[in-house]
Amino acid sequence: MISEIKLHGKANEKLDYFVTITGAELSSRYCYESLPEGDRFFSGRNEFIISPDGISYTGTGGSLCEYMFGVDLPLKDLLRKDVSNRLVMYGAFYDNTDNINFTNNTGGKESFDHVFLTGNAVSNYYFFLHASHKSEIKDIQRDILKNIGKQLKRSTTVGANDDTRLCREIFESLGDPRALVFLFRLLNRHNEEYFRAFNRFYSEQKMLTDEATTVLNELAKNFSIIPYQQERIKIDGMYKLTENKKIVDEYKDILISVSEKGQVNPSELAKLSRLRTLSLRLNIPHTLFDTLDELLLKDMNIVEVEEPDDVRDSRAIFESLFLQTDKIKGHISQEDLVKLLKAKQKSTLVRDQAFEGLLLDTVRACDEHARDRNDMSVLETMSYILTYFDRYDSTATAINNLAFMENSALSEDSTRSIFGNKEVFDQISPDLFRELFVDPLRDNRYLTRYGRKKIDALFQGLMQIKSGDTTYRDLAASISRVNDDDKMYTAIHRYIKDRFRSIYAELNSKEDQEIFIQDLNREIQSKGIVQGPIPHSVFEEIILDIRKESFYLNNLLPHIIVSRDNQVREDFLMNSGLDRFYVEELEKDYFEMNKIERNILEEIRK
What phi and psi, each to the nearest 5 degrees, are found at residue 496? Predict the structure, then answer.
């Protein structure tokens, strides 16, 4: 006894159709005829006609296709993780309360262009059922959906194009041994060829080469595939790649998990942002995520917390440690490390505790994750990050001490340690060491003259060590010399100001200045204030600085106090070469000596 019939036909030059019929007594109940308008299949009150331009149908049944980008996706289906197919019953519609209403008006007609544009771009199913019992069509439709709806919306057979198995699934789900199932699969061969070509190219390199793009463009031109259809096919191909699908599905899972409570917190937003960032590296189009956001986030209350961009980026990176997708779980790229290190640097510079608080929370969460799930991978990744933070802390401490602390130098071992850390940071990103430790100091307005000289000597020395032009010992010695110059300048400057407060203003000629310097040199040597010879240039530099101080206190500062013109003050600080902190001490003494209100000083320093 025949239990299945399979037929294959062509509707036109690009569309094939496959018919599978399952049921009892097929030889007497299977009805087909060839009409001028196309091939007609019918049984009882049901019919399905395939013409060169489209299809028409009436009776029971509906359409079925695998979801892809561009297919209308009801929210109920999106919220069910196991639903993968779209099922539409003839004559059925949703009312205002999202309940399905059935009618007896089940007839319809669709062009092939409409079928493949609103349904799956490659393959779509239609079916009708000849039930053994007699009822109104709307009642039969309701029973059909009740019996087969759950199975069909979750069936993996739809995407596998296994018509025999799918037809059998429908038949068995009906629970009616006398039923007859007519299943029609419509295949767009041109779209299928384009889809296979794209998958072949994309799976090789996770991107399209120029050569691949040329081939695809030629196929699209020859087959007249419109741009929107090309985009749908590409997105579907990208999504179905295993590693990509895991990322998109995890993004969807996060949205689903927050849908019941109706709001998204910063932690969840960070995870979503992180998945989007990772998707860019895998060339997954944001259109997939935008569609999900539009469906699930449009009415969601987003709990916003004002965070600096660097803290928000860091939160996203830390949250990604707990993502479930194997390919991205705990994945920390060099770009991520750069962002984290710069966020740590910024939090230190502006004394913002947000980053450190986030870091402590993440470490605690990693510990709990390892304890509760017996999964050490997240904790290991966090430990990996913390080793870089430790390197940052030790390097920043050594260099900042060198820059801002008087009499601070570096030992040979310290220079070796800093050079080793420089190599590690620059392996993450070229010039990262300079960006983290040198540039911020050079931009610091309170960096002293000799502090700047020590930082420049350090950075140049590290570059020369790498090129083989100097040694750790020579670098430490050069920094020590700058430190000695600093101590010499400070000692002589203090002595001159204390001993000769009224003399330097009278040194108008070069000859008077030379005599003054010679006398001063002998006096300093005899008192043992500085050991060894003093370069002539040091005296000249100090005398010039003292003249600048005098000019500022006697001429500029009174004008600034009256006019409140802090731009004049800023110009002087920028161009005089005097240390800002030292000038601020002079200002403080001036205000106290002249009993000027302190709030005026605060105003001109803004």
Answer: -60, -45
Residues 6+ apart with CB under 8 A from 203: 241
- Residue, of 58 and 539, whose pLDDT is higher: 58
Q: Tell which residue, 572, 178, 33, has the closest CA to residue 605.
A: 572
Task: Work out the end-to-end distance of the chain between its first and last CA atoms, rounded to an integer number of angstroms.
Answer: 97
Distance CA 379, CA 371 (A): 10
pLDDT-derived band at 363 (thresholds 50, 70, 90) equals confident
As given in the structure block, the two tokens for residue 14 are 């690009």
Number of C-beta neighbours around residue 397 at 10 A: 10
The contacts of residue 16 (CB under 8 Å, 6+ apart) are 8, 9, 10, 186, 187, 189
CB under 8 Å to 264, separation ≥6 — which residues? 258, 272, 297, 300, 301, 302, 303
d(CA 140, CA 148): 12
Cβ atoms of 295 and 73 closer than 8 Å = yes
Q: Quick one: what percent of the chain has pLDDT higher than 90?
A: 34
Nearest to 113, CA basis, from 190, 10, 20, 19: 190
pLDDT at 439 over 80: yes
Domain layout of the chain by residue ranges = 4-188, 242-374, 391-496, 545-606
pLDDT score of 246: 79
Residue the block writes with tokens 């980053």: 355
CB 400, CB 441: distance < 8 Å: yes
pLDDT in tens, 503-535: 544 556 677 677 777 777 777 776 777 777 777
Residue 573 in contact with residue 580, Cβ under 8 Å? yes
Q: At what angle do helices 227-240 and 189-205 cross, to 10 degrees?
A: 50
Cα distance between residue 226 and residue 194, in whole Å: 12
Alpha carbon separation from 52 to 42, 183, 492 (Å, rounded): 18, 19, 101
pLDDT at residue 34 greater than cutoff 60: yes
pLDDT digits (tens, 9 = 90+) for 152-167: 999 999 988 899 999 9
Rounded-to-integer distance, Cα 350 and Cα 532, Å = 43
603, HSE (Cβ side, Cα atoms, 13 Å)? 12
Cβ-Cβ contacts under 8 Å for 34 (sequence gap 6 or more): 40
